[in-house]
User: Fold these one by one.
Assistant:
Number 1:
Amino acid sequence: MKVTIHIWDLPLRLFHWLLAIAVAAAYITAKIGGALIDWHGRIGLFILGLLVFRILWGFVGSTHARFLTFFPTLPRLIAYLKGRWQGIGHNPLGALSVFALLAVLAAQVGTGLFANDDIAFVGPLFNFVDKSVSDRLTGLHNTIFDLLLAFIVLHIVAIIFYRWVKKTNLVVPMLTGKKQVPKTLAASVAGRTVSGVGAVGLILSLIISCTVVWGVTGGIAYLHPAETYQQTAQADPGF
Amino acid sequence: MNRKIALTLLLTASTTAAIAGPIEEQIRFRQSAYSFAAWNVGKIKSQVVDHPETFNKDAVAAAANAIAAVANSGLGALYGEGTDKGVGWKQTRLKPEFFQKKAEVTVAANTFNEAANELAKVAATGDINAIKVQFGKVGESCKGCHDLTRIKE
């Protein structure tokens, strides 16, 4: 006997799909380069906003969005690997993947803020470090991308594995927010499946996310002006 | 007699240096050339893309001409055999495969040369939107060569 429950809240699903689209767009714009590298930078800032939002949502979002709900503790992991884990949100192995992806993406965005392409693009925080440091962080930005790609491939392979081997469709719930679960399981979490999609938490999370993005673009430059030489160079130096 | 030999040796040495130069010298000159180009690329980026309100037609045209001059200066002469290893202003990042991919490299380098010369032409018109478009193409041509010939950081 199965019942349909609301498992992923709308902000979480929007986060997921916008992140997927943004990462793909960031990859394409970086590969093509030229004028699109500026878009790569803007998309990176958008991803920064998404990540900040997700971290906040991990504390104030609905039940299955909360980190504490699905944190992959060792007992949970062992139980899952022995086939004894019962739950309806992220399973402990999936939870590890969530945290790994978030950490790798955070490192990717963090290094990107200081990066340069040795052509005509610098990240918004480039002026706060030496060029040599920026070069090293750019190198890390390249390396971390490979790691990110590996995690994305693992993520997709896992989804295919669940679909064909474990007969569980993970994609549809991420689109609709609804999932069919055994009635006994649903009962154990009844009443708190979609708790906490509070307007206050949502608005505060959005405001903080936007503020962080503004902070690294305009805010820091405003509080701590680090104008580039190019901006202060005289238009007519005389010779 | 000894002085003559010394003079001949000195002349030969300096002529050789002027034609090919030791490896470090080639690396240093090409790093300088690209740094100079980067200064001018930065000016155009700032005045055309990031802060168009500061657009100065003459300054941008001068910058575009400088980039084209670097492109037209025969940079290929600074990529002699063995220059994939060595320190100019800093360690070179030229890929060792560079020397096996001469045909591809020539195409990529000429793409940059053509894009840079076109940018100089467009910059002379003072049409900021057209400059912006062509500037993007120059950026792509830079990347084309970097991806092909430079070891990633």
Note: Residues 111 and 137 of chain A are 5 Å apart (CA to CA).
Number 2:
Amino acid sequence: MESYEILESTGVATRDMFENLLPSSERRAKGPYIVMECYEEIPCNPCVTSCKFGAVQMEELNKCPHVDYEKCVGCANCVSHCPGLACFMINETVGDGKIDITFPYELKPVPAKGDIVNALDRKGAVVGKAEIVRVLSGPRMDHTNVITMRVDKELIYDARNISLE
Amino acid sequence: MKFSDIVVIGGGPAGMSAALAAADAGVRVTMMDRGQVLGGQLIKQTHRFFGSERERAGTRGIEIVKILRQQIAENKNIEVLKNTECLGIYSDGVISYETDGKYGLMTGEKVIIATGAAEKMLQFENNDLPGVYGAGAVQTLMNVYGIQPGQKVLMIGAGNIGLIVSYQLMQAGVQVAAIVEAMPKIGGYKVHASKVARMGVPILTRKTCKAALGTDHVTGAVLADMDEHFQIIPGTEEEIEVDTICLAVGLAPLSELVSQTRCKMRYIPQLGGFVPERDENLELTAKGYYVAGDVSCIEEATAAMIEGSIAGLSAAIATGMNHPEIIGKRDEWIKQLENLRSGKTGAKIRSGFAVMNGGK
């Protein structure tokens, strides 16, 4: 089955679809960057309007977003603005075999900084442990908490959610 | 008998937008809705809306309804009749309604009908057992009244409603055992599918619910695979334990009231079933009557709000408020709606309108 067909029948984006979105290795080594896992053309553009740096571009309302990684500073503002909860920020420069993945989280309870939780993959299966290193939740986020988890760098494609038990 | 320049029937996203657009153009509007509060389905949409900034994308439905209610409350041109059910539209243009147990009659120079849609049912054994819900009811219980409908839910339908309500069930602390979908592909936005998938909810395509199990209430469901002709494949049945079955199998326009205007009705499956024929300004073949929202085309609330603005302005223009600025505003909304529908996800709607405009 083609990658996109897998997404269409399961809701799970394949590894190659994700890897196609990644910026150059130089840019990845520089600092945090956003990955917009928005593979389907839908009429939606808050990612574009929420970006203060003009890094997110879209041909027109019904196209997928495109990130200009020269302009993206990794602020993660789009993470809480995307109605599809499809923006993830990745930071591969933390060292020690770890990476940080910042993701939107709309469940209660909200984890606290320092918590050790389960990292879940795109199907909700436990794939390892994650340390919560940052929690942003304020009126500006409007109940879409922006959580950063630290996981093994091998989980760059897999880790997309957490469970608190 | 009561009279208003414009009567808006239905106080959901389309009706509220229609009333505001017309009132802002300078005409007096009476809006009736059968609910206790205005807002229609918006009052339970806790998710952020899609679209562009002008359509309030990124804002949650429950916040949008607050903004619209406030604007309506502050607008001196709008009279709101809550708890008011429209009973009929007569051939002489008289509208009858019941408000707080009293019968009333009124007329309007122009009438906008925004009655929305009703959920479809699915045929399966035991589908009348307590515990079988429509997705709208589940959303009302959870998001309006704060009540969990059950502890473990089977969702039927992977369109946007099925996906979004599954997500909201998980947010309410309810387990979703699976989402089954008869089609080979997920019908809703893939970003919605991805967010429920990563919470551990399996989305099973080409699968249906064959029967609900239980005697007094739902205790389980029988799932089965479907072939390409949507027939159950014998021998693929499996039982799962759930206490709630939630149906999200589509909506049908509530077009009974519309049809009383004696406008031309058409059966167009892409638009949701029996829908009134209407022009670009959303006027029906019965002149002076307009529609907005799901009543003439099943679509997202964003489109319903834009249609409301178009219908409200068109009706106001027809009463004589034909200032170029108002006409320009209306035409801008028409363009914006076209833009919203121009992509891949709008293909079905576009093909429906092609049928409507293509003659008999």
Note: Chain A has one domain: 3-163.
Number 3:
Amino acid sequence: MDGTAIESLLHGFVVLLTLKNILLMMLGIILGIFVGVLPGLGGPNGVALLLPLTFTMDPTGAIVLLSCIYWGALFGGAITSILFNIPGEAWSVATTFDGYPMAQQGRAGEALTAAFTASFFGALAAVLLITFLAPLVARFALRFGPPEFFAVYFLTFCSFVGMGKEARHKILISMLIGFLLAAVGMDTVGGSLRMTFGFSDLLRGFDFLVAVIGLFGLSEILLTMEEKLAFEGKQAKLDVKVVWRTWKSLPRYWATLLRSAVAGCWLGITPGGAIAASFMGYGLAKRFSRDPDSFGTGRIEGVLAPETAAHAAGTSALLPMLALGIPGSGTAAVLLGGLMIWGLQPGPLLFVEHADFVWGLIASMYLGNIAGLILVLATVPLFAAILRVPFPTIASSVIVLCAIGAYAVHGAVFDIWLMVVFGIIGYVFKKLDYPLAPLALALVLGDRAEDAFRQTMIASRGSLGVFWSNSLVGSITTLALLLLFWPVLSDIVKRLRKPRGGLPTEAASS
Amino acid sequence: MNREKDAVVSRRTIELIVAGTLAIVGIGLAISNWKLGASWAADGPQPGYFPFMLSVMLTLASLYGIFDALRERHGARGDAAFVERAQLVRVLQVLVPTVLFCLGTEFLGIYVAGFLLITGFMRWIGTSRWITAIAVALVLMASLFWCFEIQFQVPMPKGPIEDRLGY
Amino acid sequence: MDSRSTAWGFGAIAGAVCLASLPAAAAWEPTKPVEFIVPAGAGGASDQMARTIQTIVQKYELMKQPFIVSLKGGASGAEGLMAMKQAAGDPHKIIVAQSSLYTIPYATNLPFSWKDLTPVTLMALDEFVLWDNVELPYKTTQEFLDAAKKVSTTEPMKMGGTGSKREDHILTAFIESKAGVKFAYIPYKSGGEAATQLVGKHTDANVNNPSENIAQWRANQVRALCVFDKERLPYKAKVTETQSWNDIPTCKETGLDIDYLMLRGIFIPGGGTPDQVAFYDQLMRKVGATPEWKEYMEKNALKEAEFGPAVLKAFLEKDEPLHKQLMTEAKFLATN
């Protein structure tokens, strides 16, 4: 298997290395960064919009162009998160937690470099996985039914929810609001409408992006304005060497990178998605850090972890799409539609019937990500320079971009108003020390977790034992519970150790 | 004593308003979900089960929030200003134009409203000259128009001016 | 690759010929970009149909104004339906709808009826097929139903499907009442998900549309038991190693007397004038005459339907009461 994989891959590179394909690759990356930067206009949109253009191209050229838009969008999502606290993509919410504080401290260039490099590392890990383990991994993904999905969401949740510094009831309230917002609209399992109170604008529920653009982006402008008329971090020096300096510090964080890459690949395949992966990556980095309290104040790991995980998940999500025909993400779903229109049927036979195409795509994952990394790193000084533009210009442009982003998600003016309301809520909550991250996480995972739970209950006829019914789901559930009670457990361990550690010294002194 | 530093409203008042509102919202949602069916049926929870539980928990947590805000030990911090007068003025300098911009979007479309917002903001909140403000806003909105309407074909809310131009 | 480009070439010629043979242009035509609303998620069957139509319209330049696909799949598509209702009188919006036109309002009390829209034409009818996992020992519908009957009261077989109280669920309830069995119906978000869950043996069977299970069928992971139609599918080219769509027996042949088809039709918002309807009807007829469309129909095993508003209206007037009856029997109607 391995020998043929490398041979096929080399053949894929040969297919790709034509001038036309390399130009398409560059074009795709630039377009992708562009749609990634604009909030609301995400990877799925970018790919969907260009899809018709590609119907007259040959499938290899078309998939190169489209998949590069995807890589570009994955890279680009981090930019506005770091500079303005506005997640350009849903999976870059966790990047704002430490990325934005870094930018405020004048370390925007460092944060951007870290984010891009981490993205590249995550993607590389996922592509290696796809290259060598595709058939094996595809079979593994099939083992995921509703109980396994629920266990994965539960695990994501448990890995992220540690006890923060805020008052406990405020953490709880924030989380509950997130879950409740997620439940508004159509209930997949019951088929009825919940909490819409007859408003047709509430039918589609509260979109995650609309909420986070308001909660994180607009509220940040209000807070900045309250203090003074400037974004902090203006003094950031334009320095091309920042890339090199950041790179030198990265090997130190190998454990974080590796952990996030594994979590990301796993969630991309199962398919829990890049959003869940980014939160889990961040949560794990914090959980295993020696100094968890410093997260959220501008730690570089807080940028590395979610970006690695999101990009690993986003990339490995293509595997179930190709091998099984199930999309692991919104963009993958659009690519899937594209494949079918080009006359390629994704599914178990794609690897056999269209091996050229598949290996061409995998080769383009390597080349596209390398090209992407070079391109985005070249733009670091440029983006860092945006912070030097006077505040009134930036603030008003950002408000317009937020509105466009909120509108673009569903094409509804109502969502622009909703974004403003979320902005005010975010401002008040931040001032009263209500944490916003639990709200965002609950909003994005709440309804999926509930669907998976209720699907499980229908199949098991109401028995909870199903969560320990086989080794796979059992170990995920147990792992989740362990992580949930980790703070309590480590407390107990510490207390048990203390007396023993303390006694000998006492004995010696007396 | 500088009036600018006066507290417009105390932290405690806002805490109480937020917790009180959430408690009421929680009760409302609980009733709505109870009507939908909130018990545990033979094939697992009914549609309203989880939202009902969550709403009840939200109400309880908010009630605790009210109790917590009224407690003595928060005394000094509770009396502190939620927002000072000068701060509130600055926040409203962003918020009011933003709301006007949203209103403008309903009638004039997002491009014209965005142009007005950026121009006005740069001129009055910032210190740009008219010519700079108009030029920046025009270039920015025109490139957004080109990008969304022409290149990506994502229709944005538009008003009478775009209608005249045939969009 | 070569065969594809030849097909495109023929398409151009065929398209040109049929354009010439069609009646003169309608009295009305769009003056603004037309928004093509898809009340479903990205990559699903409706989205693919819309994008195929969009591609054909662009390729043959069948329309002067741009033709933009816009996804409004929130609340199982209710978002798209309500957007169309609110756009009454705006002829620059069209929708590709399916039976959620009535199933959602019945199941949720959504204030919507297909009569709020102006019917233009049917594009196709979508079939449903009863599939089971190839590793299960049941090779015919009868064997499968017998086995399902045995476990009905103890541990019912798991039937996967798309959404709750929607076409898959209604059809499952229909089978239950006809065959006297009981299934545990598990609603998933999409047909693709239902297909993989069947392959992963998390469910025992599903009633997916042909296009939703074709990949798994070709890989010999799922077995097609019967098609819910009065006659077999017409497509005789081999799809799997041994079978063509035509080889799947009808459910009636196998002793399960159910036929159930789903419309895929085009509507414009309420208050559309006959001229506007005529414009879109002719546009879709032109689309329907292209070889790309025929290829798409065969690949997804769609059943051809006659074009024109009259046929669509007649279909709706028969199909809506049927759904009301089925949903009433299955107790799917909204109560509050």
Note: The first helix of chain B runs from residue 11 to 36.
